[in-house]
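Tip: read the tokens left to right.
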């Protein structure tokens, strides 16, 4: 009989909370059993600013997914992002002292622990230590050294830290909804699981997840993470500019952006036409709306360009993948391709089936990616944390948080 695992992903975003419950059997693709999506409250630019409101939005999203799936959520994989997230590359080294000089899984754990010894201030928390590549006795580019023989094992890692207070507020909001946390996952890493192929990561490629509050960037080279960054400019700023520039309510501006938002007007006469929402009677010039959206979209692309390698054409020949809700803006990818001079495509999340009709959309890349990340940690497909690179610093942090919130 196949082993069954129920896993849950919760994407707590600036504009929405998305909960996905799935069934994973013997390392197969996640079969989605339930999805719950609710408007986000209590967050600004991916940071919790009102715990009670955030907790209630999370609870409603989880409840909707539970009703669809007929399963109760006890724990979940949760995405984390925000301007407080920082990253760096660090090296670790250990010696192999056994007589046979063979590298074992315990040696991977030791060398990654060595790489974790980075200086952090008390207000920072280690989230991920991800191995980029290993070196055995000077032989570089080793992806899995277990079973190899040598005297010295080096690892180059990508280390990601976050502000303790921001993580505490997110954890408290999740746990306040009676949900334990299996793991916190940096959102661009999760999105990459859903929209990038392994061969693209080998070739060299960049990902930009343009959500509501932040643009999350991840660059992959030679099959592993090379750089991550979080830019605090995204869809919220586009909507805000529309609201201010056209003198309309924020909610109406959001509707206009989603329904008519484009960076390239369609047809010569369309630019002069008036666009009205029948629901509330507001009318605006299509040209004015397009001008605002295009200007802010150009700014976002310029900010993404600052995070790309200097010699991007050679370093990341796979180009750029745009995902997140703003990737749905008409003409965004062609404009980015023209501005950056590299291939650009829209990333559609894949890798799940079942009750997943709405999920093949850039808006849900992070939620689907969190699910795929969790699937790799369970069942027969489980990979040891020391191989996958998820450190145990966060797990110790959760234990302390349980004590603080009395659970």
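Filled-in amino acids:
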């Amino acid at each position: 009989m196949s082993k069954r695992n129920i896993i849950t992903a919760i994407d707590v975003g600036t504009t929405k909370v998305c909960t996905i419950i799935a069934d994973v059997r013997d390392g197969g693709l996640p079969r989605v059993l339930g999805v719950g999506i609710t408007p986000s409250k209590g967050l600004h630019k991916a940071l919790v600013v009102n715990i009670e409101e955030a907790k209630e939005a999370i609870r409603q999203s989880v409840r909707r997914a539970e009703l669809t799936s007929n399963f109760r959520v006890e724990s979940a994989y949760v995405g984390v992002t925000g301007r407080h997230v920082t990253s760096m590359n660090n090296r670790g080294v250990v010696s192999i002292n056994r007589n046979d000089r063979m590298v074992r899984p315990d040696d991977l754990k030791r060398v990654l622990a060595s790489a974790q010894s980075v200086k952090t201030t008390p207000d920072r928390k280690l989230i991920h230590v991800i191995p980029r590549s290993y070196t055995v006795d000077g032989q570089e580019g080793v992806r899995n050294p277990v079973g190899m023989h040598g005297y010295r094992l080096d690892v180059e890692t990508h280390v990601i830290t976050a502000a303790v207070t921001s993580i505490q507020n997110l954890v408290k909001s999740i746990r306040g909804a009676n949900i334990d946390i299996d793991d916190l996952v940096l959102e661009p890493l999760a999105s990459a699981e859903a929209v990038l192929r392994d061969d693209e990561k080998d070739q060299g490629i960049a990902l930009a997840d343009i959500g509501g509050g932040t643009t999350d960037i991840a660059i992959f080279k030679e099959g592993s993470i090379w750089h991550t960054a979080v830019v605090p400019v995204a869809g919220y700023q586009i909507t805000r500019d529309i609201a201010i520039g056209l003198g309309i309510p924020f909610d109406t501006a959001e509707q206009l952006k989603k329904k008519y938002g484009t960076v390239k007007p369609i047809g010569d006469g369309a630019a002069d036409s008036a666009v009205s929402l029948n629901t509330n009677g507001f009318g605006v010039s299509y040209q004015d709306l397009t001008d605002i959206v295009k200007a802010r979209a150009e700014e976002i692309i310029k900010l993404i360009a600052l995070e790309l390698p200097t010699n991007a054409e050679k370093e990341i020949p796979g180009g750029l993948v745009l995902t997140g809700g703003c990737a749905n803006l008409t003409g965004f990818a062609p404009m980015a391709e023209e501005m950056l001079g590299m291939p650009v495509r829209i990333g559609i999340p894949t890798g799940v089936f079942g009750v997943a009709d709405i999920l093949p959309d850039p808006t849900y890349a992070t939620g689907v990616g969190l699910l795929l990340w969790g699937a790799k940690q369970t069942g027969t497909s489980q990979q040891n944390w020391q191989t996958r690179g998820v450190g145990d610093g966060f797990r110790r942090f959760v234990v302390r948080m349980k004590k603080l919130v009395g659970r």
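The chain has a mean pLDDT of 88. The radius of gyration is 22 Å.
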